[in-house]
Amino acid sequence: MASYGQSAPILEYSGEAGQLVDDPEFNLSVENSQSLIKKVLEAIPATHTSCIHSETLILNSSSENRKLQYLAINLGIPSAPTLNALTDNFTLETCLRRMSEGLQVHQDLLRAVVQRLANTESITALLTDIRDLRIQINRMLKAVQVAESPLAVQPTATSLASRLTGDYEVQVATHLTLVQLQSFGQDIVRSLRNIAQANGERD
Amino acid sequence: MASAWITMFATLLLAFVNGTKDEVHTSPSVRVHTSTPVVALGSPVTASCIIRDDCPLIKGAVWHLNHIVWHLNQRLIPSSPAAANESGRTSAAATNESGWISTVLYSVANQSGWNSTVFIPSFTDTKGYLTCCVLHTFPCQIVGAVEIRAGFPPPAPQNLSCLTNLTKPETLSCQWDPGQDTHLPTQYTLYTEIRDLPESNTYMLPPGVHHYKIPRTGFVLFSEIEIHVKAVNALGQATSTPLLLEPMESAKFDPPKVMKVQAEPNRYGCLRLSWGLSEQQAWVTTVTLEVRLKTANSKQWSEEPVPVPRLMRQRPMEVCRLLHGTEYHIQIRVRYHQSPWSEWSNSNTAVTLERAPTGRLDSWMKVSREQRQKSLSVHLFWKPSKQFRANGKILYYVVSRQRQPLKKGQLCVTLDSHCVFQLPRGARKVFLSAGNAAGTSSPTEVEVFQHRALAAVSDVNVLPHDERSLLVQWTSIHSSSVTGYVVEWRPLWKMDPSLILFDHIDRNQSSTLISESIEPYNPYGISVYPRYKDGIGLPQTVEAYSRQKAPSAAPNLRVREMLHSRIELTWEEIPLCQRNGIVQSYQIFYWDEQGNTKVVTAELEKRRVVLRELDHSSSYKAFIMVSTGGGSLNGSEVTLKTEPMDDLAIILIVISSGVGLSLLIIISVLVCFSTHERLKMCFWPKIPDPANSSIKRWTTLDSMQDIPPVEDMQESSLVYLSHLSLLDLPKKGLEKRDGEITDDPWCRCSDTSDLGESICGSPHALSPSYIGSHQHSVPYATVVFDSPYSIQPPSQSHAYLRSESTQPLLEEELEEPSSPKEYQNVPVRGTSGEQVSFRECLNDSPGRGELCILWDDFPLLRALAINDVQSET
C-alpha cells in the first residue's frame, strides 16, 4: 500500500551507462509523454471538482487523506507502482513497465467508478488522456524491452465495482483514485525528466 | 348518369373496405408494383398494374384493353407506340420519353384479370409517380401508384481534411467534398483506424451530411489515425482516399500569450521573452515558434517572421540581433511540427539596451564671411547617414574643433540638427559627434569650405513626383573638379532654419527624388549646389510645389485711384500659406449695370490693373480671379462707381477753352492789324459814287488804275473785267438769294462797257430818294474776272476793285414796302422766283403793263439797252 499523495522524491538520474536510447522516435515519445502526463495532472483538479461533492474529500489535504487509509484497504484500491531513478537495478525498461502498469491500474479504477458517477464527462476525458499516455509509454517500452512479456497487472476494476455499495464509497473511491493518480503522475513526470536527461536532451 | 355515379361511389366504398381488411393501401383486387423503384437517370423503368376480375371497377362492365391508362407525374403515357405515333407524337425521342403500355388478359389458377404493363425506356425525372388509372367512368379512377427515383451512384468523396480542436471538448473535425449531386439519398460513413490501438471506429452520418466531429475518445494524441469516408446510395457506393494524420499535427493552437519582454543586463541587442500557450493547451511541452517584431516608429511588422530554430518549451526565450536602444513590439505564434500556425499573440513592448551611437553623420555647411570681421560665420546642418545607428535616444550633438569632443574646443552642443557658430578664418575642419546615455559616437570630420564664385549648375528643374515627393533635375557640370552635388530644400512659408533639409548626390547623377517633409500645396525652395574639390559652387534655386490647388483665399481689390473714366485697382499678394500653388494669373472681371462684362489680365509682378473707358457716374461691379497651376479662386465682388464731372473740372475746361479762344482772337486781331489795308479792302471796299462821277471823265486809265497788274492774273493774255456793282447786302439777303446771284438780270450785263456796268450796278443813280440818303451810302467794288462771268465757277476767288459809288442798295429800298418807288420792281415780293427785268413795254402784251417800266424813266439804262442791241448785232 502506497502512501497516498506523498511519494518519495525520485533521485535524479546519475548518468549510468546503458540507459541511453539513441532514437528520435523514442525521444519524441518521451516528449509526448511529458505533454500528456502534464495534461493528466492539469485535468485532475477539475475532474475532482466535477465528480466529488463531499466537502471532506479534499484533493491536496494529506491530513484528511490519512483518514481514508482504512477505506482504501476496505475498497481494495491497489497502490500505484513505485518509480525510482534509473539505475542499474532500476532500468529504463523497469521504469517504463511500472509506469504502464500504474497507469493501467488507475484506468481500471476510474472505469469502475465512472459507471457509478452522474457526471462522467471529465472522468472520460481523463481516461482518454491516460489511454493516450499509456500508448506512448508502451511504445517506449516496446523500443527498450529485450523480450516481450505481459504486464503483471491484476484486474482490479471488477473487484472495486463490487465493493462500491453506496454513493459515499463511490465518492471515496473516486477521490482516492484521483489522489493516487496525481501522486503517481508526479512520479511519472520525474521519471520522464530522468529519462529525457539520460538521453541527453537539454533545454 | 346519376346511377353511374352512385355505382362508382359504391364500388369505391367497397374497394376501401376490402383494402382496410388487407391492410394494403391499394385495393386487394388491384396491385401496382415495379421492379425498378430506383434507377440510374436515363435508364428504362417498368411497372405493372394487375387488376383482378373481381375489382368492382371492372366487374360486370364491358371491358376493353384501353380502359387501363398510366400517368407519369400527371403526364398521360400513350397506350402503345402505335398510339403514340397516331397521336402525332412520331418522334422516337418523344416515344422513349413517354413509354408505352401493354395490357393483357391473364388467368392464373382460379384468378383472372387484366395485367397492364408500362414501359418507359428512359426515365429522365429524378423523382416521379407512375399511377395506374381505370377508365370505368369519367374521369378515370386511380387504383394505385409506384414511386420511381432516378439518380447517379455516389462519386468518391474528395478533399477529406481534418482539424483538431484542442479546446475542450477536444474534437477532430473532418469534412469532405461530396462531389456531384446524386439526386438520391446518400449516406456517408466515417471510418477511423488508430495505429496504436487495436480498434477501429465507424461513424454513421445522417444522409446528406458531409462533415463530422470525431469525439476525443475516437482519436489518440500523438498517434496516427487513418480516416476514410464511404458514400452509399441505392445505386452504389464509393470510398474516399484514406487520410493519415497525427491529431496534434492537425491542431490549430489558440494564440499564445506574451507575458513579458525585457532587456537583460549586458545582453546588448537582445530581449528576453516570457511566453505561454493558452490555458487549455499549456500541457503541450514543445511547439514550433515564430517571432515578429517592429520598432516603435515603424507602422508595419517585419515582413519575414523570425523562426525559432528548435522546438520550444514554454520557457522564457531570447530574441537577439536587435538594434540597440530601440523600442520593439513583439508578437509570437505557435504550431506543433507542421500543423497550421496559430494566430499572432498579443503584442508586448520593450527597449533594448543602449550603446554609444555608431556610424557617420551627413553634414552640410554654409559659410559666410563678414567683410570687416576676421571670423567666419558657419551654419552647419547634419542628419544621420544610412549607416548611422543612434543605438538609443540621442541626447545631444557636439560640434567641436577637436577630434575628441572636449569642453574646451566645443563650438556648440545641441539636440537640434543644425547650429550656428563662428570660426577663425584659418579653420579647416570641425568634428561632429552624436551622443546618447551610453556614450558619444566617433566624430565625423567636416571640412570647412568657404563659398566661392564657382560655376553653378544649369537648368534646375523640379517636377512633382507625387503628393509628397519632388523630382529635382539639373544639368551636370562636366568637370573633373566636381565631386558631387548638394540638394537643399526648405519650406518657404516658414523661416525656421531647422527646417532646412539637404541631400548629398553623387557626381554622376543629375536628378534626385526628395520626399522628406514634403507636403502637398506648400511651396518649397529647392537649391542645387555643386561641390568642388576646393569649395562649394553657387546655387541655383527654384520654387516648387508637389501638388497645387486653387488658392485658399483671394486678394481683396482696393481702389487705388479713381478718375472719371478710369479706375486703378490694386491688391495685396496672397499669403504664401494660402497660395497653394504658383500664381499664374490675376484676372479682373468687371461689368456695368447693363451686364456688359469685360476682363482684364494683370501683370503678375505689379498686382495692379487699370480699368479704362468707363462711363461717368456709372456703377460697376468687379471681382478678381486668381489662378494657380491647380485651380482658380474668385475673390469677393466689389462695387465701383466712377465720379461725375465736378465743378473744378468744368471750371478747368471753361478756363482752358476761354484761354484758347482768347488766344485765337488776339492772334486774329494781330493778323488783322498787320494786314489792315487788305482787310479794309476786303470789308470796306472803295466804291465809286456814281452821283459824283461822270462817264466822260472816266478814262481807261482811271478805270484801270485799280486793276492789278497783268502779271498777277492767272492768264495774263486775257483779262475780263466786269464793273459789277456789288451791294454790301446784308448777309441774310445774300443767303436768301444764294444761287440766284448769277442769274440776276443785273449780272447778265456782261458788257465790257464800263459805262453800262456802272449804270447796271447803280439803279438808284437817279433816284431822288437816293440823293437825300447819302448817309446810307454803300461802297461799291469792281470785280475782276479772269474769264467770262457766265462760266466762272462759284468758288473761284475774284479780285475786287473799290468803286467810288455811294449809291444805296436796291435791297435796302426794297425793304421799305410802304412806299415803293416807281422804278422798283414792285411785284418782286409777290412773285418770288419770277424773273423781273427792266425791259421795254410791249404793246402786244397789255397784261404786263403794270410791270412795264418805261425806258424813258431810266435814260442810262436805255443807253445800256441800246448797247445790248448793238452788241447782239
From TrEMBL, chain A:
Name the UniProt record assigns to this protein: Colony stimulating factor 3 (Granulocyte) a
* InterPro entries found in the cross-reference section: 4_helix_cytokine-like_core, GCSF/MGF, IL-6/GCSF/MGF
Q: Where is the signal peptide?
A: none
User: Its domain of life?
Assistant: Eukaryota
- Which family is annotated? Belongs to the IL-6 superfamily.
The species this protein belongs to is: Salmo salar (Atlantic salmon)
Report the SMART domains cross-referenced here.
IL6
From TrEMBL, chain B:
Question: Protein name, please?
Answer: Granulocyte colony-stimulating factor receptor
Under the heading InterPro entries, the entry gives: FN3_dom, FN3_sf, Ig-like_dom_sf, Ig-like_fold, IgC2-like_lig-bd, Type1_Cytokine_Rcpt_Type2
Indicate how the chain sits in the lipid bilayer. Single-pass type I membrane protein
What are the residue boundaries of the Fibronectin type-III domain, all occurrences included? 156-253, 255-355, 456-553, 554-645
User: Which family is it part of?
Assistant: Belongs to the type I cytokine receptor family. Type 2 subfamily.
Domain of life here? Eukaryota
Is Transmembrane helix among this UniProt entry's keywords? yes
- Keywords recorded for this protein, A-Z: Glycoprotein, Immunoglobulin domain, Membrane, Receptor, Repeat, Signal, Transmembrane, Transmembrane helix
Q: Where are the transmembrane segments?
A: 648-673
N-terminal signal peptide: 1-22
